[in-house]
Amino acid sequence: MNAFASVAPPYNMPATSRGDTLLNDTAEARSRALNQFLASVELKAYKIAQAGLRHQDDALDAVQDAMLQLARAYADRPAAEWKPLFYRILENRIRDMQRRRTVRGRVMAWLPFRRDEEDDDSDPISQAPSQDLPPVARLELDEAMTALDGALAQLPGRQRQAFLLRNLEGLDVAQTAQAMGCSEGSVKTHYFRALQALRLKLGDFEQ
Amino acid sequence: MNASDGGPSQSTLLQSGLEVRSRLVLEAGLSRIDARTRSRLNQARQAAVAEAARGSALMWLHRAFTRQALMPAGAAAAAALLAVFMLSGGHHLTQSVADNPASALDVLDLVTDDDAMNLMEDNDSSFYEWAAAQGDSPGQGAGQGAGNGTGRATT
């Protein structure tokens, strides 16, 4: 018994420390992978949130909430599942904020004093484009972006979501269906109708 | 055009260049996102990664604590409980069973009786009233038990 007890710790200790090292390595690798994934989607996610919310700070809040929620609840899931999960969370967050905004708008409409200073903190220098373009190209791009943003804003939410997830983020039909919480057939329908509507609204946009 | 089939008409639109052009414009829009927004997105990402690392660390601590501290502590606690049981309560229980083996057999019979189990499942309180009226000793309530036994069968 004593001999057995004296032998046991040397067998147990290295196994435990090796397991801990493996756990640490796995956690670090997962953190790196999560960082890379979030870096790869953050701009597109912000663009999608902005298209749905039409407000810069709300869009940032939505993306931040979606990132945190993904990290808290789904960081242990396989990395291949992160993208549809992330966009599912983001879409839910956008919808929540749209609902809250609708309620807030109704309440504010009844109040005698109304706050219109939501955009007071806009700083033209900090909001300047990060890359310089030739003036003509910038003008063309500005026009195209304005036209596309306007057309996207007029789309029903599900059509806009299907279009942006498929076209901007590059999700396939199955991933888009997972992100939108609907069937693949619905994704195809929403996407097709979005294309039709955009084509009608943008006219010669594709030339 | 039928929207639901997603077949030829959709492929016609795919060939139109609308998607290509809109993708180019959208991606160009990404590159024009301002520095303040990029900075805030970066901060949000760092916070999310830190949150995930914190969760991993907590999970690691939980595993390590469970493996290295809780298991020996649990074993010690179980041993202590067993010792307390043997020294106090266990003695009385084993003593009462030793004093009255027939009572213990009655209890065992009640528990293992199929009819009694069915009554318990049917939530029939009359079974419990009948069982309480039987008393602890084998002779007590025997006549009453005969009548109630009939009643139990018909319940």
Task: Give a written overview of the molecule.
The complex is a heterodimer of chains A (207) and B (155). Chain A has 2 domains: 96 residues, Rna Polymerase Sigma Factor, Chain: A, CATH 1.10.1740; 69 residues, Winged helix-like DNA-binding domain superfamily/Winged helix DNA-binding domain (Arc Repressor Mutant, subunit A), CATH 1.10.10. Chain A is 77% helix and 0% strand. Chain A has 7 helices and no strands. Chain B has 155 residues and is mainly α. Chain B folds into 2 domains: 77 residues; 56 residues, no CATH class. Helix content of chain B is 83%, strand content 0%. Chain B has 8 helices and no strands. The chains are: A mainly alpha (207), B mainly alpha (155). Chains A and B meet through α1, α2, α4, α5 and α7 of A and α1, α2 and α3 of B.
Mind sketching the topology for me?
The complex is a heterodimer of chains A (207) and B (155).
Chain A: H1 2-53, H2 56-74, H3 82-110, H4 135-154, H5 157-168, H6 173-180, H7 184-202
Helix pairs in contact in A: 1-2, 1-3, 1-5, 2-3, 3-6, 4-7, 5-7, 6-7
Chain B: H1 8-15, H2 18-31, H3 35-87, H4 89-99, H5 101-112, H6 114-121, H7 125-133, H8 142-154
Helix pairs in contact in B: 4-5, 7-8
Key phrases:
heterodimer; A: 207 residues; mainly alpha; Rna Polymerase Sigma Factor, Chain: A; Arc Repressor Mutant, subunit A; 2 domains; 7 helices; 77% helix; B: 155 residues; elongated; disordered C terminus
